[in-house]
Amino acid sequence: MNKLPKIGFENAKLFIHSKARELERSRFEFIFENGTKESVIEQLKIYQNNDGGFGHGIEPDFWSPVSTPMATWAAGQILLEIDAGKNEPIVRSMISYLLNTVNIETGMWDAILPENNNYPHAPWWHWHEGVQENGSFNPSVELAAFLVHWSDEEGGAAEAGWSTISKAVTHLMNKNQMDKHEINNYQQFLNIIKTQEATFNSRSPYSFEDISEHILILAEKCVDKDVSAWSEGYKPLPLDFIDHPDHPLRKRLGSLVDENLHMYIEQMSDEGIWDITWHWGCYPEEYEIARGYWKGILAVNRYKQLRAFGYLK
Q: Contact 126/117 with Cβ under 8 angstroms?
């Protein structure tokens, strides 16, 4: 197995400690340098509003300070990463926001809000009439898992979560193909719910095993298998779906996973980091700022992934 040049990781540390956002710095310290979860929570608080939701550009591609379900999803992923407990005030207020903003009839949260248009944002985060009508459970299925994971088993928040999960599972099992982002939401949903597999099986018309298999099929189908085209743009790559070497999708994709790992190593800059593969095409000054933020996010996420695969010395 190849190893990363040590200088690459050391340079990345310098970049993160000097140029990344404080949020990514605290995450890096937590993952690699024995940092505390309290430090990460303190940074997350900067992005949380009084209603419990998150905004303020925590997701760098839209800068609205207003609480949105998508920004709250981004924060929730980090709270999962540090294994925050359900009694943390930041978690309790987040759950309150999610419970207050879910559409009970559809089981969904609005992914894009009109307020996005008032602040710098990538074009895919622009609100217009009908933007919510694509039927996607990105990020709703994962937000529903948050409700179940971080609330009392018999409480109203958990019940709202299970209600959305029921709708999301039916949606999933009627899909023959799916966008990579929504697939990731379903994968993470399963990771979160796994400890309650028995409850899931008692409430769902499909078994946990059937759902897991269907998501794997969709992910395998979604991956771009033309290695020669991977560097040409925003492609669904194996490591977009696989975060550790024991992931069941690794066997199905075989050498493509190693090709992806090698590509990350080859594309690493002299600073030990990676650039993004997308462009806003608008708000040029703000885009460059967001691009810098994303470099920090990618560095933390990819070194975490590379370490899982044994690529860090």
A: yes
Instruction: Kindly report each contact of residues 18-21 with a partner whose C-beta sits within 8 Å and lies 24 or more positions away, as own/partner.
Output: 19/292, 19/295, 19/296, 20/293, 20/295, 20/296, 20/297, 20/299, 20/300, 21/293, 21/296
Are the CB atoms for 261 and 303 separated by under 8 Å?
no
Alpha-carbon distance 18 to 306, whole Å? 22
% of the chain with per-residue pLDDT over 90: 92
Query: For residue 152, what are its two tokens?
Result: 């009392």
Token pair for 289:
């700022």
Distance between CA atoms of residues 56 and 74, nearest Å: 12
Please give the model's pTM, rounded to 2 decimal places: 0.96
Q: How confident is the model at residue 3 (pLDDT cuts 50, 70, 90)?
A: low
When mean pLDDT is compared across 35-39, 51-55, 263-267, the lowest value belongs to 263-267
Task: Measure CA 179 to chain center.
Answer: 14
Across the chain, mean pLDDT equals: 95
Coil, strand or helix: which one is 62?
A: strand
Sign of CA pseudo-dihedral 189, 191, 192, 195: positive
**Residue that wins the pLDDT comparison between 3 and 260:** 260
Q: Which two tokens stand for residue 284?
A: 């040029």
| Neighbour tally for 97: CB within 10 Å | 22
- The pLDDT value recorded for residue 154 is 82
